[in-house]
Amino acid sequence: MKQNDVIVIGGGLAGLFAAITAAKRGRRVLIVTKGVGAIAIGGGSIDMLGYDQAGAPVRNPREALAALGQDHPYSILGQQKVEQAMQEFIALCAAEGYPYMGNLQQNQWIPTALGRVKPTCLTPLTMNAASLKAATEVTVVEFEGLKDYCGKVIVEGLMQCPGYQKKYSVVSVRTDINDGRDLTALDVARWLDSESGQAACFTQIAHCVAPNSVILLPPVLGTQPDYSLLEKIEQATQCKAIETVGLPPAVTGYRLRRMLVNCLSKLNVKLIEQANVLRATLENGRCSGIVTGNLDRERTYRANSFILATGGFFGGGLQAGAGQATEVVFDLPVPAPADPGAWSNESLFFSGSQPFAKFGVQVDARLRPVDAIGQLLLENVFIAGKTLAGYDYCFEKSGNGVALATAYQAGCEA
Amino acid sequence: MKKHQYNPDSCIACTSCVAYCPVSAATRKFAGPKMLGPALERFRGGETNTDFSLDYCANCKNCDISCPSGVPISTLNMLARAKQYKNKRRSLLDWMMSHSDIMSKLASPMAALSNFGMANPLTKLILKQVGITDTMSLPKYARKTFLSQFRAFKQQSFPDKVVFFPGCFINYYAPEVGMDLVAVMQKNNLEVIVPEGLDCCGSPLVGKGYLDEAMEKGRKNIAALKSLIDHGIPVLTCCTSCGLMLKMEYQELMDLDHMEKLAANTYDASEFLLERHEQGKLNLDLAPVAGRYIYHTPCHLRAQGIGRPSFDLLSMIPDFQIEAADAGCCGQSGTYGFEVAKHDIAMEIAEPVFQRIKEYHPDFIVSDCSGCRMQLSQGTGFPALHPITILRQSYEGKQS
Question: What is chain A's percent helix, strand, coil content, to nearest 5?
Answer without folding.
Answer: 35, 25, 40
